[in-house]
Amino acid sequence: MTATGKSVVAAGVAALLLVAWAASTAPPKVGAADHLDAPGLMSPGGDPRLDINDVYVFQGADPGNTVLAMTVNPVAVGDTTFAEKHSGSYHLRIDTNGDAIEDVTYSISFETDDGNQIAKVQRAQGRTADTLRPRGRVVAAGPVGEELAVKDGGSAWTGLRSDPFFFDLGGFLGTVEGIGNRMLNDGEQSDFFADLNTLAIVLEVPDEQLGGTIGVWGTTSVRNGGAVMQNDRMGRPAINTVVNSSGPIVQAATEAKNLFNGSAPRNDGAFAGAVISALQAYSSLDTEGAYTDGEAGALAGVLLPDVIIYDTATAAAGPLNGRALADDVIDIELRIVTGGDPLGLFPDRDALGAINTDGVGPHDDYLDVFPYLGEPNS
Description:
There is one protein chain. The chain is globular. It has helices at 3-13, 169-177, 239-243, 256-261, 272-283, 293-303, 329-337, and strands at 52-59, 65-76, 88-95, 104-113, 116-125, 137-143, 148-149, 155-162, 197-206, 213-224, 227-234, 308-311. Helix 1 (3-13) crosses helix 6 and helix 5 (272-283) packs across helix 6. It is of the alpha+beta class.
């Protein structure tokens, strides 16, 4: 496929960002873009504090700034805390030259001081950016729940916020997974996440600190004795949760999710076969039948490596160009993953997939100013 053809496919596809479903032994049961993406639909490593929910990349209120946001810990409540540095750390990784290797990494770690959690943000650049431990120059530090100034410009914020993700989880479970009595667009559409909270890490920095077109993903690291290992990772929504689902449609191997979580975007070619198989499984729900090998392969070539591509000179328009809080990537993803071809990329396929919308839209509590995510729900 030519570079032009690939970019056209990209316009329709950052596709497999389909939302995931999940269930856990602790109530309430919850699933979202990347929540609970370990075997058995549990948090990676069994630690919800280090479970990445979503990653967002969008233009700040100052158009010369870019916002990098990562939410963690499904169904957080008022006293939910981040993992502290002796247990784990959080990383926002930026590729500036298109090789799927981080050139800049912002690492966030936490300590308790006089009963309050303190956040420390470090910036590593060049060879030191490829690190599992927090490294680099300290650019911000201060209490969780407060806006912190970032050296060289910008702001940092960590703490409890309203979960920005929106999706009719119950309808999806019934329609696609055969779980429960709900169906998508059955007149009982409900945004499962409207009243839930999450822990958020939000950085806003000048574009010149990042570059022009960038690739962004988040990771968490965990300490295991004297070793530090990658615990979770996420770029585009739900790649791991959907592609490596062990449910009845895809039936991936149990260990597949952990392998993906522990790997890096530079090595994502190893997962191309799994992406192709998953696309064909989901698109088989369409009346036109499953994607051909060529069609699924073309889409997989766009989806991997699993990073969010963003032109920092523009406003985000997910899923192709960054991901803003209100971007309804789910409707696009549902249509394309289940066999729809709204851009006319493939002969003999129409624009509609087996599922074309979840019937719910963005929340109304997003903020126009930093830290952008809504105030926590009571």
